[in-house]
């Protein structure tokens, strides 16, 4: 398979954005979102204090604005018509002055301009003018969220990359479970599993593989024993003990595309109480799967899961929505939540992860990555979900 988004698809994405600009009577556009620039151009970069921007001019040509240290990199990998650069930030002349020059040369003056943000932003020390302060335009309109909306429905090529991610998450998780033994620390276990899975991944996929993110990994993220009752715990370097509840996560990014595989496991033995909440969690996930249907709102899934929790009087043990979209980011919109009424459509890739959290005992959460189909959903992750398979021996 091709381990990247082909150039013609990137060009098609830009054309789709241009069509929407025209439909909204906008002449041109400026974008600063890192993930959206990658989505439109295929150029993966590390944002720092040095501003980077993408723009489409009134002649429908695409441009990338980068620091000089990225110029040759952008010319090699970015699917754009023109690359512009500036010497350095802060430098003797501010990058936004160079940006203004590029925009004026591209005929932005006096035009109706759409932008996703009124200037570059960074937490790494950047300071600079807003676009509306230095560009004389006819008017400015926000196009924030436009490309994010384009990213909601995945193409066949995107789904194949996510499926490939799922395969390597599956291997990494298999190794994590294999090495989860009493007396070993979480860092020791996760490092070994992730390293072995990554070596297998790069040897199998070969030179064409580009992660644009993390290679294969599997981890606990501190969700071990009683700490697993915190949905977003952080690594604690805990040592596994017999009877611990474990909440895991595994994936492997392929050309920037994510998947999500999470499981609830137990070290060597499981108590009746652990089994009770595990079974509730699996039932809740099954209910979510059954309610994923094109044409229904996202809230339809969450309402069904919440009704199950209420019926079993465990709603007080839940603390987050049932799932979220996934793609170039680990969490994307839309969401399986009561307040999200986005209509499910074929091609949406979602996680399904209702969770139950019992203080002093642990957390209970499987997460699977699925794609909405014409008549329901297809499971993309395929790790076992039953209790017997989740006991680490």
From TrEMBL:
Tell me where in this chain the Peptidase M24 domain is found: 160-374
What Pfam families has UniProt attached to this entry? Creatinase_N (PF01321), Peptidase_M24 (PF00557)
Creatinase N-terminal domain sequence ranges: 13-153
The cross-references to Gene3D superfamilies, in alphabetical order and at most eight, read:
Creatinase/methionine aminopeptidase superfamily (3.90.230.10), Creatinase/prolidase N-terminal domain (3.40.350.10)
Q: Which InterPro entries match?
A: Creatin/AminoP/Spt16_N, Creatinase/aminopeptidase-like, Creatinase_N, Pept_M24, Peptidase_M24B
Q: What is this protein called?
A: Peptidase M24
Native organism:
Brevibacillus choshinensis
């Amino acid at each position: 398979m091709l381990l990247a988004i082909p150039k013609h698809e990137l060009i098609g994405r830009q054309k789709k954005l241009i069509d929407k600009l025209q439909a909204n009577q906008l002449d041109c556009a400026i974008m600063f979102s890192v993930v959206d620039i990658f989505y439109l151009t295929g150029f993966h970069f590390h944002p720092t204090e040095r501003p980077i921007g993408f723009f489409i001019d009134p002649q429908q040509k695409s441009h990338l604005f980068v620091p000089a240290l990225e110029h040759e990199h952008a010319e090699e990998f970015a699917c754009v018509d023109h690359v512009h650069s500036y010497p350095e930030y802060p430098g003797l002349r501010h990058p936004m002055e160079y940006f203004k020059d590029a925009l004026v040369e591209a005929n932005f003056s006096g035009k109706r301009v759409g932008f996703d943000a009124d200037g570059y932003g960074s937490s790494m020390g950047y300071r600079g003018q807003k676009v509306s302060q230095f560009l004389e335009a006819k008017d400015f309109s926000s196009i924030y969220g436009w490309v994010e909306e384009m990213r909601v429905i995945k193409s066949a090529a995107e789904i194949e990359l996510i499926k490939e991610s799922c395969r390597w998450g599956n291997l990494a998780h298999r190794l994590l479970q294999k090495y989860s033994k009493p007396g070993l620390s979480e860092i020791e276990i996760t490092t070994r599993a992730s390293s072995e899975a990554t070596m297998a991944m790069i040897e199998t996929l070969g030179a064409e593989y580009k992660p644009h993110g993390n290679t294969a990994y599997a981890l606990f993220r501190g969700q071990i024993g009683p700490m697993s009752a915190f949905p977003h715990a952080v690594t604690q370097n805990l040592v596994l003990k017999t009877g611990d509840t474990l909440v895991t996560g595994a994936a492997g990014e392929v050309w920037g595309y994510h998947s999500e595989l999470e499981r609830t496991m137990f070290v060597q033995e499981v108590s009746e109480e652990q089994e009770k909440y595990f079974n509730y969690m699996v039932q809740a996930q099954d209910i979510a799967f059954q309610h994923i249907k094109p044409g229904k709102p996202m809230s339809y899934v969450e309402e069904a899961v919440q009704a199950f929790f209420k019926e079993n009087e465990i709603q007080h043990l839940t603390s987050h929505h049932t799932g979220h979209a996934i793609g170039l980011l680990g969490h994307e919109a839309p969401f399986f939540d009561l307040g999200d009424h986005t209509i499910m459509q074929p091609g949406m890739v979602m996680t399904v992860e209702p969770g139950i959290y019992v203080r002093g005992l642990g957390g209970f959460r499987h997460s699977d990555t699925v794609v909405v189909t014409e008549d329901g959903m297809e499971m993309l992750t395929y790790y076992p979900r039953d209790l017997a398979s989740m006991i680490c021996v």
